[in-house]
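This week, study the protein below.
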Amino acid sequence: MDDSLRLAHVAVHKVHL
């Protein structure tokens, strides 16, 4: 479950960048 949350977090950060 941590992987899924982490992937979503990274995706959001990538979009912000």
The radius of gyration is 8 Å.
